[in-house]
Design goal:
2 domains
Amino acid sequence: MFNDPGKKVKIVANVFFWLVAAGGVLTAVFLAINMEAWEYVLIAPGAVLVAWLFGLFIYAFGEAVESLTALKNRSGSAIAPAGTDSHAVVMAQGAALRQEIAEEAARYEQMYRDGVITKSEYKKITGRLRDLM
């Protein structure tokens, strides 16, 4: 039930749009026929516009939730688990990232020593890696 909430919110937005738009059009036609005043047909475009605007906001929220979920999944966890020292978690993640960058720098250094990359390429790459640290 709680897996992939962004996708579910987007589905709800789509269903909401079609239900409100169809309901608005049917109501406009019903009023126009029963009241014998065809001006009520003008309610239909307004209902579709309102349904579209509200559906758009709901869909955008679902898109934001999806993007946040993807970001969280890509970075491990955006929020420290309850009961943990968030500073310690951030420091541990930072140390792990620095270790990965150091290993990457060592691989490029070996590539430079082996003649796979030039000195200018090596300096450019290691400069970017230093910027990450």
